[in-house]
Amino acid sequence: xxxxxxxxxxxxxxxxxxxxxxxxxxxxxxxxxxxxxxxxxxxxxxxxxxxxxxxxxxxxxxxxxxxxxxxxxxxxxxxxxxxxxxxxxxxxxxxxxxxxxxxxxxxxxxxxxxxxxxxxxxxxxxxxxxxxxxxxxxxxxxxxxxxxxxxxxxxxxxxxxxxxxxxxxxxxxxxxxxxxxxxxxx
Length: 186
What we know:
The protein is mainly alpha-helical.
């Protein structure tokens, strides 16, 4: 678990500068808003502007969890997730991705975690939120990669490459969250 997460993160960070140089101008030329239907997801700009909102939720909740998670694997995951969320947010902002402001349901989830006491209930809530978030991101990246399979534009191809790296991490985090959820008795 640890080695694969680290290697995937390093691959993501290592590939980011190359992808950034080719993707930034494409995003600036065609600003995109998040999509409401996966069927509408066709450009890297749409994909990245949808991912960034979820990455911000992951960042906020993992900042809380590194302080409050008590179960060993939930705590370890929160640290890895925090590092990933910081990196993903930084990369997406560097390429010009912007999403809408955080909505009320997301803010409520964050506030609920902030006010929750340490212990098994907190750990279950944090891991459930991360599982839901990563399942959504996995499905989002699967849809984008499927819908943009015929892309020939170089910037779009680079966006697909970054999405492929993200997709691998999303799938891994779904599996890890499911395992930890089982350990917590959720």
